[in-house]
Design goal:
The longest helix has 16 residues, at about 180-195. About 40% of the residues lie in helices and about 25% in strands. It is of the alpha/beta class and about 250 residues long. Helix 4 (about 110-115) runs parallel beside helix 7 (about 150-165). It has one domain (about 5-100, about 170-245): P-loop containing nucleotide triphosphate hydrolases (Rossmann fold, 3-Layer(aba) Sandwich), CATH 3.40.50.300. The strands form two sheets. The chain has a six-stranded mixed sheet with strand order 6-7-8-3-9-10, with helices on both faces.
């Protein structure tokens, strides 16, 4: 398996966020994790990308509370759970965060250049930039615009384009459509399909079940930090209990 998550537990003090979470992603797939707000979707991606460990290290020895993370995250056979976030990024596992989180006072171009911090060749940097502009042409017209003035959809596109500058092999997309209008979601859908067509494996979290199911070969349904169902879109929709209780369909 390309990404294999086994028995992942996450506690903030005594509050359980992830409960024996287990799932896998095969190379070349687009896989979705769906579920309501608070199900643990973002926490799962942050744990995989090393940001929970970063929080652990910051809080160690303070009185701010305790974070406990246990289990296993294997990427291409290598255990990631003890690695710092930057080492995980060096392995081409890249997180695109919810709501994009651009450097708001920097231009679109400067944000994209920041995403290429691991790239040493100026030629490759330019090729990556051109590829991003091809997928997200609006960013080329906005390249000198300050990122904080972009629309919500444009910020999401900038976040995905910035992630592509790190040459991801596995891209973690955290709720890319949150707060966006239906027409903007359609544009993002097309962009995600183009990224996948480039050979990038994608793990996507979403509250919008329809968006996720149209993109993904397989899906996991998360509730209270635990996988409660898995399967293709048709399998999950045909299960009355799953559809009504967890998917809201």
């Amino acid at each position: 398996m390309y990404l294999d998550v086994k028995n992942l537990n996450l506690f903030y003090d005594r509050a359980m966020v992830l409960d024996e979470l287990s799932f896998h992603v095969n190379k070349g797939e687009t896989v979705s994790i769906v579920g309501p707000n608070g199900a643990g979707k973002t926490s799962a991606l942050r744990a995989i990308a090393g940001l929970v460990k970063w929080e652990q290290d910051i809080l160690k020895g303070t009185v701010m509370g305790k974070i406990t993370l246990t289990g296993s995250v294997l990427f291409k056979g290598e255990e990631l759970l003890k690695l710092p976030a930057y080492k995980i990024a060096e392995r081409k596992l890249i997180l695109c965060p919810e709501r994009g989180r651009p450097f708001r006072e920097r231009t679109v171009l400067e944000n994209l250049q920041a995403g290429a911090y691991m790239v040493k060749s100026k030629k490759v940097m330019q090729e990556l930039l051109n590829a991003a502009y091809e997928i997200f042409p609006i960013l080329k017209t906005r390249k000198n615009q300050v990122a904080g003035t972009l629309s919500g959809g444009e910020r999401c596109m900038l976040a995905m384009a910035r992630a592509l500058q790190s040459q991801p092999e596995l891209l973690l997309l955290d709720e890319p459509t949150v707060g966006l209008a239906p027409l903007v979601k359609e544009d993002l859908f097309a962009c995600v399909k183009k990224i996948h067509a480039m050979g990038v494996t994608i793990l996507l979290t979403e509250q919008d079940v329809s968006f996720a199911f149209e993109l993904s070969e397989r899906n996991y349904v998360l509730s209270r930090g635990k996988v409660v169902a898995e399967g293709t879109a048709s399998q999950l929709i045909s299960d009355d209990l799953v559809r009504k209780t967890y998917l809201g369909l």
